[in-house]
Predict the structure.
Amino acid sequence: MKRIVINLFISLSLLLAMVGAAAAQSAYEAPTDEPGPAVEKLFFRAFNVDRAPLDLAAGEMDMYYYNLKIAAARELRDNQDLQLFEAPATTLSLILNPAPAPEGQLNPFSLPRVRRAMQYLVDREYVAGEIYQGQGQPMYTQNSPTDFDYLTVYDIVQAMDLRHDADYANAEIAAAMEEAGAEMVDDVWQFEGKPVRIKFIIRVEDERRDLGDLVRAALQGAGFAVESNYQPFAPAIQTVYSTDPAQFGWHIYTEGYGRGASQRYDSGGINAYYAPWLGNMPGWQEVGFWQYENDKLDELGKKIFRGEFKDKAERDQLYREMTELGLDESVRVWVATVNSIYAVQADVQGITQDLAAGPRGLWTLRTAYKPGSDELTIGHLWVWTERSTWNPVGGIGDVYSSDIYRQLSDPPLANHPFTGIPEAFRASYTVETAGPGKKLDVPKDAFLWDAKKNGWQTVAANSKATSKVVFDYSKYFQAPWHHGQPITMADLIYSIYQGFDMAYNPDKAKIETAMAVTSRPTLETFRGFRVLDENQIEVYVDFWHFDTNYIAAYATPSGVSTPWEILYALDTLVFKQRRAAYSDTAAARFSVPWISLVLDRDARLVRKTLLDLSKVKTLPDNIFKLPGAAASLVDADIAAARYQATLDWFDQYKHLVISNGPFFLARYDPPAQFAELDAFRDPNYPFTPADLYKGAPQLIEFAATEADSIVLGEPYEATVTLEGPGTLGVRYLFSDAATGAIIAQGEAEATGDNEFTVNLDGDQTLELDIGLYQLSLAAYSDQLAQMSERRIEVEADLQ
């Protein structure tokens, strides 16, 4: 008898949407060959997600940047006036507060066994299939199920069998609570005669409200008194991420993350979501707060982040160990990846489909346009919130400001939207590395910032480094800032200084403590800089990676996103005058504004500082005088021109957001939830729309699968044929369908033109019992930062 049950774990609608997008967008004709973007104006406006379909149908916007609710999106599928793009751009998790409660109280999430039980209490299949109506996929680790790095850990997930099992979860919770001294009274846990209450912050803007209600009911079923607090973005973020966990303003929160770019090899995500050192775990590395600590997670995370491995195999092993430990700690419980749906008017052309971010990535709004129009209106849930803070040092951290700012500033490197590998964008580079365990000589005239001596100092004799990267910033320096002043090496040098001095100047570190503490583990791997000429800078780092593009990404000295005079004024305001702060926690601690350059009140503080600097003709000459240089990078005349240009910009635009990208911020109106971005048409800007259009990727498809039933004691063969770009491969897991126990795993054998075979010998099949088994196939390509998974249930019998 032949029995095959196939589950394809990439959304069919996603596949069709991307294939359709590829056909619709394959031929791109730029509306202009001028430097800059494809349109003259971008308007960002806020539209409520519940009304967004009606507003789209009425032509009120050209593109909706916030993911549509699933039911509304399905109603739009047959609308010929709209294009729908899908991408696994949203990830959902529950973050648990693990802080110990005060004497006489009990925080159940301070108990690791209770946190681990949450992995089984959450019904991921229901969230993905019912709440998100099949547009979600269960998510178990920091990797989405289609991420390339999910290949590294997917057997761990399989072996842990993180199924929904409320009975098991409740039993584990009961055992942990009783061990901690709690008792069940009338179906509610009590500790020292009082009910154990859980404060649950639940987001309300989207389906996370339903997720929160589902988890609330499960927690109540486990015996907890749950205090639900339904909040929108700004107050929820403020409560969770800006307060001391030991104050217990929250115990659990429905997190959501928007993905900004494809990533083939993850290092930042696993650290951000598991390791305390990076400042994204409860306590947030803020001085005076209770801190979640885990030395082993920090040790593993830093090794991954800083390239402390000898090859890919060792890197993958570190990644696996860290994933297992993160799951064991369960401070974050991952729930689902959502295939977000973005609606675009049918006549809009020039969409690039990032594998992770969809049309919301770096590329689309630089190349998109409507024939016959020179403007686009982009809808979003918000343009401004109380948490939307525009400063280039400790702000621009929410999705709403980030989505706008991405159009204003060019990064030095960017991940390719299909491969997920870093590549040159506005800075080019060459990499030389000694490799793991070896070192290069650092030239004796290389320099580093010395915070104690308040100046640049040449490196110590016989200094060594693992890698050297030479960056060419000429594509930045050939064009001016938005306010007309030239971008120069001085802007780059000031940005490097700013990071080092904030981390190592003890007076500054006492003010912006979290930023200082979290940046030091990276900065301490930099061994020296050398300015080679007016365009090139040489960087020496103790970092290695098997893909040298990642070495360049790590060693990038600066994004050069903001003119040095604004950074100087901000530093003066924050560290000398003490009238503002870069971070929200420092702002709260010192009762000063969290500085935002788009708010009139804050921008005027910076303007006043610039006026004072201009009047006394002050400039930070110690920063611009490099060792061995004949002259400073900046003189009094240059500084005066910079100050005046920035002051003139404020007089014209009433804000101080000045950058280098294809658009500049012409108007920002928080009360009206509106922003206007105008094209920056300097003739020396290095890109035209045609330079940046990428279109849509070709995805991996399972063209054919042959998997007969297994005859015990006889060799078994399953064959899969793929279609897709580049060099393809298939990894397999063969497991017991009932228990999830892994019986065999490995790489499928390439047996033909994109044909792969999984083989089990007779001895292996003889050990099997009669029943159902699962064959999981994970297909991947060297040209995609994504895998596609197919699961097949195969019956084993005697004949």
